[in-house]
Amino acid sequence: MGLFILRRLGVMILTALCLTFIVFTLTNLYPNLEKLAKTEGNFRMSDEQVDSWLGSNGHLDPMLVKYGRWLGVAPGWTHQDSDGNLRGRCITPGMENPENAATYCGVLQGHWGFSSVFKENVGQIVGQNLGLTGKLMFWVMIVMVPGALIVGVLAGMNEGSRTDRTLSTFSITTTATPEYVSGVIFIAVLAASASPLNEFLRGAGWIEGRTLFKGTATSAMEDANFWNFFLPVITIALYGMGYIARMTRASMTEVMTAQYVRTARLKGVAFKTIVLKHALRNALIAPFTVIMLQFPWLLNGVVIVETLFNYKGFGWTLVQAAGNNDIELLLGVSVVSVFVVLFTQLISDIGYVFLNPRIRIS
Amino acid sequence: MEPLTWTGSLGTVLNPALGVSLAVLVAGVLLQSLLAFFQPEERISFNADGTAVATGGFNGLLKAIIKWSFAALVLTLVGYIAGGIITGHTNGGIFGGIIRQFVPVWGALVATFVLSFVYKRRLGLYGKLFDSTVGMIGFGLVMFWAYTALFYGMFGWIITHEPLEVASGMKNKVPGTPFRGAEEGGFPFYLLGGDNLSRDVFSRMIAGSTVVMQIAPRATLFAFMVGITLGLPAGYRGGLLDTVLSFLANLILAFPVILLFYLLVTPEIVETGLPSYMAMFLFLAPIIFTGVLINSRFYTQPPKRNLYMAVALTPMVLLYVWLVSDSSTPVSFIPASLDAFNVPGGILVVFVSVVFVNSPTVFRIVRGLTLDIKTRDYVAAAQTRGEGAWYIMLWEILPNARGPLIVDFCLRIGYTTILLGTLGFFGLGLPPESPDWGSTINEGRKLLSIYPHPALPPSFALLSLVLGLNLLADGLREESLKD
């Protein structure tokens, strides 16, 4: 078991290194750097000026060296100005003794860089936004996981019944509704002042504001309540729910046709007891892996929903960073998201082994 | 001119009928689902004359109610469609007008279904699809959009106004608004209203279906070609090849899709020509696939093989060269005068990135199936006969993996549609005035709380197409498991 985890960890670190290198390369291609030079320096720079700006900021070195610097395993660049000032990657402007600055400063040393859009440290921005997205994800999980498991188990315990068909239709519909479709429909029906439902509620005097739900979740960043936070949460939860429910249903139907369930039925055990005691535990192994592997998809949903509802979390930051050529911030965001994905994969692998006695014992 | 209502004068009769039948149906289904928890078993009672009745009492009544209310619902819907086709928007309101515009699609759908039903037993898996209700509904939805896209793309039918034309005075107008300055013979209404640039929402939705239908199935096909060409040897040979390819596939899969899109589709990256290089590599897959497919089968008969290869590969290579080489990108290896066509700006990039995102998953599926199938007896028999590795992979293993692959193909077209929508939603790749559904949703969402109508039609269109594909895949899976 220990060896298995170690090997998985090794593969994970190798994957993370490869992925960050790819992201680093793609964000540090010459056109991006040229744009960066023009936004940081001067929009009317000539090509030579751009090159000299990039050269004096260490951007023209070989890609591997730059990656090593960013990671913190290669010494940071230093550059002597024409008027004798020493500048460098590890030297913050206005430092007392630039000569004594650290040689290595990268992600490993905790230097995530400086965002050119938000004018703040990347580490700080990512930390704040992860907190906000964490809040969103927490509620998504609270809604999605029990909902999906209940729907899946109810559908799977009587295969082919009307309940099964109704719930299966529901879950297949939700898997066919991406977040940007369900979100738009929810806003149009529940949060648009022009929607007939809201006109009716306003007319009847049942709601105080103009609409039942809020169409933006910006206010939920500080003070989340049902009326401004429910729509983003349910929008993400619904898309993932259908998939998990279908997996649970498949797993449940398989268990319900197993020999030991048939034996229990023939013994005369009550149907409720069979479902709750005999079937459920074995049926929930597969959904666990699925829930964990849903994380990359949920990350997608988070980006869409945070953009749609203007909730300034992690996904929103990703869009801002990518849209504004904020290289350091985009790198930071990518590293975090890649690690979230890899880490959940690891947990899913280990959890599967732990939960499944057939593998655990052998 | 009066603005149109949703259902016109037809609605005065049909709307109450629809409401009642729908309400009864929903109540019946809910009640039955609830009751199922308390009496899971069907009760069989024996009559005095020796016959057995499986249902009766309240449960039987409920079943009958559901059956009849469903029939009434279908009848009402048929009424709407028939009324719409006959009277159009004059009596049928907005729905009538829309249904009238879709007349060619209805005709094609009816013809398809009638023909398929008649020759059901001779059509293999496709024919079996018509044994499953779910599969039929899915197939109907998919074909609805396929025919819509085809008729608009080929003949320019169905639309009421030009999808890119900006009219005056129709900005954000609600559905059913009379079209100011309609020419003689032109369509006098904006059926689903105008968007924030006064374009007709209905026509843009129809035009969007063509964009989606042009890209999604082809991109999925290419992803399958790439996935199969790499997945078969990885699963069959195993070893280092498998380790390396699987590692690469997992690498791509660990990327959050949106991040990958942002990294691949931004103008700066396009400027470096990276998507063109990827196109160069990814579009090779079908050529390699076809070449190996023919060679492995006919290499013992060189004349036949050479003929087949020439017939199959010449057009493919030509297409490849025309497609990939583009004088405006770094990848340009033939003179512009010989280049028959270039894919318009953005579409190639979108296509490539969608193929790139999809192929690792296909690779994993094919690899898994190959690992399973290569232990079968017929593979061992082929190995004993001394067949080549590629022959076994392509002519023994691949045909036997077709069931799950066809099902996944349907699901994957749906997923690709969703991905295309995501790209449009973030305004990546396709030009901003493009009528594809993702871009229209993106445009509509900005004024969503005041004018919800421009964003809703493309949303429902996308939803129904993906739902149709999922249902179709479900039906196919069910029917292919029955053999």
Short description:
The complex is a heterodimer of chains A (362) and B (483). By secondary structure, chain A is mostly helical. Chain A contains 16 helices and two strands.
- Over all CA atoms, what is the radius of gyration of chain B? 27 Å
**Relative strand content of chain B:** under 5%
CATH class of the largest domain in chain A: Mainly Alpha
Discrete helix count of chain B: 19
State the fourth-level CATH superfamily of the largest domain in chain A: MetI-like
Low-confidence stretches of chain B: none
Number of domains of chain B: 2
Quaternary structure classification = heterodimer
Strands side by side in the biggest sheet of chain B: 1-2
Span between N and C termini of chain A? 11 Å
Segments of chain A where pLDDT lies below 50 for 5+ residues?
none
Please name the two chains that share the biggest interface, counting residues whose Cβ lies under 8 Å from a Cβ on the partner chain.
A-B, 60 and 53 residues
Q: In total, how many beta strands of chain B?
A: 4
- The helix/strand class of chain B is mainly alpha
Mean pLDDT of chain A: 82
What's the helical proportion of residues of chain B? 55-70%
Total discrete domains of chain A: 2
Shape of chain A: flat
Fraction in beta strands of chain A: under 5%
Order of helices and strands of chain B: HEEHHHHHEEHHHHHHHHHHHHH
Number of helices of chain A: 16
Can you tell me about this structure?
- The complex is a heterodimer of chains A (362) and B (483).
- Chain A has 362 residues and is mainly α.
- Chain A folds into two domains: 2-109, no CATH class; 122-355, Orthogonal Bundle (MetI-like fold), CATH 1.10.3720.
- Chain A is built from 16 helices and two strands.
- A two-stranded antiparallel sheet of chain A has the order 1-2.
- In chain A, a hairpin with a 5-residue loop joins strand 1 and strand 2.
- In chain A, helix 5 crosses helix 9 (226-256).
- Chain A is flat.
- Chain B has 483 residues and is mostly helical.
- Chain B has two domains: 1-35 and 59-101; 202-480.
- Chain B is 70% helix and 2% strand.
- A two-stranded antiparallel sheet of chain B has the order 1-2.
- In chain B, a hairpin with a 5-residue loop joins strand 1 and strand 2 (52-53).
- In chain B, helix 9 packs across helix 14 (347-373).
- Chain B is globular, with a radius of gyration of 27 Å.
- Chain B starts with 9 loop residues before the first helix and ends with a helix.
- The chains are: A mainly alpha (362), B mainly alpha (483).
- The interface between A and B is large, with 60 and 53 residues.
